[in-house]
Automatic annotation (TrEMBL):
One MF term in the entry's GO annotations: methyltransferase activity
GO terms, biological process: methylation
Record-given protein name: Methyltransferase domain-containing protein
Source species: Natronorubrum sediminis
Ranges where the record places region Disordered: 1-21
This protein's UniProt keywords: Methyltransferase, Transferase
Residue stretches of biased makeup (Basic and acidic residues): 1-12
């Protein structure tokens, strides 16, 4: 997607928060509080979502020796599968904003003795990386970002040309009579996960990436996997 077209589309994207705004800072603080709280109970949802997370990771095109970025890694539930794919010569870099999640993710790395897995505490929208990645993944994390579009742009810039970003996430019911429950679903997601109600993950991804498509849906469309492609452009945003 040419940069001028991306800029035109960005002007039509849903409302996003601006770095430095009180609302942005408040969202980050709520995320820290919510995910620190859930860090001790994450294994419950880990079991529920495991088949869908595995399906999302199946969509990656990882090769031994690749460099992979895991956005909003939580306690590291994707690490074993990703590490197996890239092997000992690859590198896995994972980021999360919750200090407690980072502690648990690092403990998982230590217990397995993975020397090529690094966990960083960072706001994914503002994270900086010293080398490009061959692939990226986010499972159940993009929809809770304080600025979803900025996060997508950061990931786009961090990827090598001809690479992909796979997203597994949740949303309100997209169509059909059960949409009547969406107000309740939105309130639950905001309470449970600090879900961002002001931006659509799917719209933000389509704005930033050169190609993006939903490749699988589950639970009546409330959960989905999207595959986004970065083509030959060297920069995004």
């Amino acid at each position: 997607m040419p940069s001028e077209h991306r800029e035109r589309k960005a002007s039509d994207a849903s409302k996003s928060l601006t770095a430095g705004d009180d609302e942005y800072a408040a969202h980050l603080e709520r995320s820290r509080t919510v995910w620190d709280r859930w860090s001790d109970w994450y294994t419950l949802s880990e079991r529920d979502f495991e088949p869908m997370r595995e399906d999302a990771m199946d969509r990656l095109e990882l090769q031994p020796g690749d460099r992979i970025l895991d956005i909003g890694c939580g306690p590291g539930v994707n690490f074993e599968r990703l590490r197996n794919e890239i092997g000992p010569d690859g590198e896995l870099v994972a980021v999360d904003y919750s200090p407690e999640m980072v502690v648990k993710a690092r403990k998982r790395v230590e217990e397995h003795g993975w020397e090529n897995v690094e966990v960083r505490r960072a706001d994914a929208a503002r994270a900086e990386f010293d080398a490009p990645f061959d692939e990226a993944i986010a499972t159940l994390s993009m929809s809770v970002m304080a600025d979803i579009r900025d996060t997508a742009e950061t990931i786009y810039r961090a990827l090598t040309p001809n690479s992909r970003f796979v997203v597994f996430d949740v949303r309100p019911v997209p169509d059909g009579p059960t949409r009547v429950f969406n107000p309740v679903i939105r309130r639950f997601l905001q309470w449970y996960a600090n879900w961002n109600p002001d931006e659509s993950v799917i719209e933000a991804l389509a704005t930033v990436f050169d190609e993006c498509a939903i490749v699988a849906t589950y639970n009546g469309g409330c959960t989905y996997t999207s595959v986004c492609e970065k083509r030959n452009q060297s920069t995004g945003g």
